């Protein structure tokens, strides 16, 4: 795909399936801030389920499920796992 706004780069055939981005908060990219592992989800409900399951497994919220301004229909959720790693689930499906 190539450049992903001014944040980094996206890879995928039609939509981003792998994103490598700079931290949105402008802080330096360090462990758990810039080292995010993201998973493509099939639906917004799957993003919500990922977030709920992560919290239930001992993770902490790093961005509740909701729209993200990066691209049209971007919807994601972020967590810190119990070891402090930042993880995300996202999709680009139209609003429910």
Describe this protein's structure.
With 96 residues, this protein is mainly beta. It has one helix and seven strands; from the N terminus they run ββββαβββ. The protein has one helix at residues 44-56, and strands at 2-4, 8-11, 18-21, 37-40, 60-67, 75-80, 86-91. A four-stranded mixed sheet has the order 4-7-6-5, with helices on one face. It has a three-stranded antiparallel sheet with strand order 1-2-3, with no helix packed on it. Strand 1 (2-4) and strand 2 (8-11) form a beta hairpin. The relative contact order is 0.21.
Kindly report how far apart the N and C termini lie: 26 Å
Q: CATH homologous superfamily, by name?
A: 2,3-Dihydroxybiphenyl 1,2-Dioxygenase, domain 1
**Spans of 5+ residues with little confidence (pLDDT < 50)?**
none
Q: Please give the share of residues in helix.
A: 10-25%
Q: What is the name of the CATH architecture? A: Roll
Helix/strand class: mainly beta
Output the number of helix runs.
1
Report Rg: 13 Å
Number of individual domains: 1
- The average pLDDT score comes to 85
What strand order characterises the main sheet?
4-7-6-5
Work out the strand percent.
35-45%
**SSE run:** EEEEHEEE
The biggest sheet, with number of strands, parallel, antiparallel or mixed sense and barrel status, is: 4 strands, mixed
Would you report the number of β strands?
Answer: 7
Q: Fill in the CATH topology.
A: 2,3-Dihydroxybiphenyl 1,2-Dioxygenase, domain 1
CATH class: Alpha Beta
Shape, principal axes of CA atoms = globular
